[in-house]
Specification:
The chain is of the alpha/beta class. The chain is built from five helices and six strands; from the N terminus they run ααααβαβββββ. The protein has helices at about 5-25, 35-65, 85-95, 100-105, 130-140, and strands spanning about 130, 150-160, 165-175, 180-190, 200-205, 220-230. A five-stranded mixed barrel has the order 2-3-4-6-5. A hairpin with an 8-residue loop joins strand 3 (about 165-175) and strand 4. The chain is elongated, with a radius of gyration of 25 Å. The mean pLDDT is about 85.
């Protein structure tokens, strides 16, 4: 690849990273929020490398040094190399859609880790806000069955259940980035499926299926109310939702 093309590619990639991490929250579609500083640093380094390379070419041109023409391949740029510009331009011009129902429908639910220290008493609030993971863990592991008669509120997006019928309330969880994402789902009963990818706050009670407090219990909810909500800031965690300030 010729030096001017290399320089342009470095500059576009660096500018795209800085745009995504500094001026938008698009980067959260790909990585956890804690990786924002490394993304900013990477974008800055790529821009500095592009500037340094451009300055070096100008210096050789002004000095009349003919040696600067021999730092590249005279056979031309392979056609496939131009494809490198697509991800660089996408960071500036087009953001791929966030992971959602399409991904979740094709992924199995993340196994819920065993609660080794027992369960603390549930707060008295009603409806009780819980994450999908906490609700699943209570349903399948809490021998006191404390969640059995409680009205809870869960927040996530809609994933069609396919052949099983009904729909799932879903969260996608990043351990590091989109490549290692995992899915947690709770089956919803008692209402027709809203459009896929709709974010909802769902209020309801555990749907009796299996023995509560054991692994036979299904993580499922009888829906009393489903209210559309804005996608939370922490969309790729299974924490209680944070809303934009």
């Amino acid at each position: 690849m010729r030096r001017p093309v290399q320089t342009l590619l470095l500059a576009l990639t660096g500018a795209g990273l800085l745009h995504a991490a500094l001026f938008t929250d698009i980067y959260l579609r790909y990585v956890k929020a804690g990786l924002r500083p490394p993304l900013i640093a990477s974008g800055a380094v790529l821009l500095l490398l592009a500037l340094a390379q451009a300055a070096g070419r100008d210096r050789h041109r002004l000095s009349g040094d003919p040696g600067h023409e021999h730092g590249h391949d005279h056979t031309g740029t392979p056609r496939v190399a131009w494809l490198l510009f697509l991800p660089a331009l996408s960071l500036l011009l087009y953001a791929p859609p966030a992971l959602g129902a399409y991904t979740a429908a094709r992924a199995s639910s993340k196994p819920v880790a065993a609660q080794k220290k027992g369960f603390a008493p549930l707060p008295a609030a009603s409806p009780l806000p819980l994450t999908l993971t906490d609700f699943t863990r209570r349903v399948q592991q809490d021998r006191s069955r404390a969640v059995g008669n409680r009205t809870v509120r869960l927040t996530g997006f809609v994933t069609p259940a396919g052949e099983d019928g009904g729909w799932y309330l879903t969260r996608i969880i990043f351990t590091c980035c989109a490549a290692d994402s995992q899915t947690v789902k709770v089956h919803m009963y008692g209402t027709e499926a809203p459009p896929a990818d709709t974010w909802l706050a769902v209020t309801g009670t555990w749907h009796p299926h299996g023995t509560l407090g054991t692994g036979t219990a299904q993580a499922a909810l009888d829906v009393r109310e489903a209210t559309p909500v804005a996608q939370p800031v922490n969309a790729y965690t299974d924490d209680l939702p944070l809303t934009p300030s």
